[in-house]
Amino acid sequence: MTDPASIVDERVDKLLAELDPRATDPVEFRRRQYDLGLAWVHFPEGYGGLGLKPVFQRQVDARVYGAGAPGPGARHFFGLTMAGPTIVTNGSEELRDRLLPRAFTGEDAWCQLFSEPGAGSDLAGLATRAVRDGDEWIVNGQKVWNTLAHIADRGMLVARTDPEAPKHKGLTYFALDMHAPGVEVRPLRQITGEAEFNEVYLTDVRIPDADRIGDTGEGWRVSMTTLSNERTTIGGGGGAPPRGSGAIAEAVRIWQEEVADQRPALRDRLIQLWVEAEVLRLTNVRAGQNRRAGNPGPEGSIAKLKFAEVNMAIYELCVDLLGADAMVGYDYDMRRAQQLGLTGPAGSSRKMFLRARANSIEGGTSEIQRNILGERVLGLPGEPRVDKDLPWSQVPR
Ligand SMILES: Cc1cc2nc3c(=O)[nH]c(=O)nc-3n(C[C@H](O)[C@H](O)[C@H](O)COP(=O)(O)OP(=O)(O)OC[C@H]3O[C@@H](n4cnc5c(N)ncnc54)[C@H](O)[C@@H]3O)c2cc1C
After folding, report:
1. pLDDT score, position 294
2. Tell me, what's the pLDDT at 218?
3. Active site residue 230
4. Which atom of ligand 1 is nearest to the CA of 116?
């Protein structure tokens, strides 16, 4: 039997022999990459994958980017990290064929339409309604905090289809066409000045039943695929960055290049955070190895919580190191973010200090991560959930 690394190498050789990534339209190049099973190598054959372990994706990426293919950008982010895994796990064959290649090429940019003004941590309490009408669903409601919805072609939408069922059971998951009549996207400006996210109003929006992901009433289960992939992406579990990279690299750079008064107390904080960043990185490496060995351990659940704490603490240190200089040199101008980043390039810590405030909220708050760790990892008694078995329509709001 040929070993997986050789299979990957053969496929990449074929891809690069057929198309020069520097001279080929990126959509065409990524489409061929998908067809050769090099999009998500851990997906099944025929759906952009080769049924291999996810670690081999790094081999693909190193070779295609090394040969000059442009890396994924904002148009690919939600499709690659969340919509793709959700569709391949829960979508019909027709949906997989129709939506997966376009998510990988970036022809369809995706966004996540989960949170609502009255439902964030308590996602299962959401109120956006979808009512069946023949082969279509009619959707009304409001979503909020929807990152990059302003560039999205498709939205991962969870809506209530049965208000008489208990809250977790009456939900259904759809691939919403963001260009459909009745979808209105409005910017929300953040503390950084940018509007990276939006509120999305849905008024009598018609969704074909063919765009439903998973069975009617199965929306909660389907959304768990999206959320677990989101946590892993934010926690850094998707891959192991090099030692000393990311936010901590910026703190070290500022210390070496910009700090005149190198007080021991600040040096102690820098070293303590360097150690914590390295422990987090090693925890992610270990989690990845356990996952590959088929034993997903608690490390993956810890990563999201710890990433938020360490990232915020590092950017706080950066502005402390800069002192009064940290207050100038950033414009707070209103911009429509076209890129996402939980860490920034050299010189960006004034903005990233503000952006990092969101780390303990986005993708599930730190309190909710602690609840998950307590209940599912440590086996502690669960929170009292008095509304769990009540029909959603009878839950006080
Ligand atoms: C930068 C950013 C990007 C985002 N992008 C998206 C996106 O693209 N799509 C999307 O759908 N959503 C997105 N969100 C929304 C995010 O998922 C929610 O903000 C988050 O789940 C918290 O919900 P909430 O804001 O309604 O706060 P609430 O749920 O109202 O929580 C308020 C406070 O109460 C605490 N709390 C709530 N319940 C409990 C409990 N049971 N135990 C202990 N404490 C509790 C919370 O920890 C928090 O401190 C984004 C948020 C941010 C900040």
Report:
1. 61
2. 98
3. yes
4. 26
Cβ atoms of 251 and 318 closer than 8 Å? yes
- C-beta 115 within 6 A of ligand 1: yes
Alpha-carbon distances, residue 350 vs 103, 269, 311, 317, 321 (angstroms): 33, 18, 13, 11, 11
At residue 151, φ and ψ (nearest 5 deg) are -110, 5
Tell me phi and psi for residue 265, to 5 degrees.
Answer: -65, -40
Regarding the beta carbon of 190 and ligand 1, being less than 6 Å apart is answered no
Task: Find the helix or strand (DSSP H, E) in which 154 lies.
Answer: strand 154-160
Which residues, 6 or more positions from 254, have their beta carbon under 8 angstroms from its beta carbon? 318, 321, 322, 349
> What is the block-wise mean pLDDT of the chain (397 residues), using blocks of 10 residues?
90 98 97 98 96 91 96 94 96 97 98 97 96 98 97 98 97 98 97 95 98 98 91 68 93 94 90 96 83 64 89 97 92 85 90 96 91 89 90 91
Radius of gyration of the chain from its Cα atoms, rounded to whole angstroms: 22
* Nearest CA-CA partner of 154 in 197, 185, 110: 110
Q: How far is the CA of 372 from the centre of ligand 1 (A)?
A: 14
For residue 287, the model assigns a pLDDT of 79
Q: From the CB of residue 73, how many other CB atoms can be counted at a distance below 10 Å?
A: 14
Give the residue whose CA is nearest to atom 38 of ligand 1.
121
Please pick, among 199, 230, 250, 362, the residue that the annotation labels catalytic.
230
Q: How far is the CA of 162 from the centre of ligand 1 (A)?
A: 24
Q: What is the predicted pLDDT for the residue at 239? A: 63
CA of 300 to the centre of ligand 1 (A): 20
Alpha helix positions (H), 206-263: 219-235, 247-257
Do 301 and 372 meet the contact criterion of CB atoms below 8 Å apart?
yes
- Note the pLDDT of residue 295: 63
Token readout for 254 is 């500022």
Residues sharing a CB contact under 8 Å with residue 360, sequence separation 6 or more, in sequence order: 308, 309, 312, 366
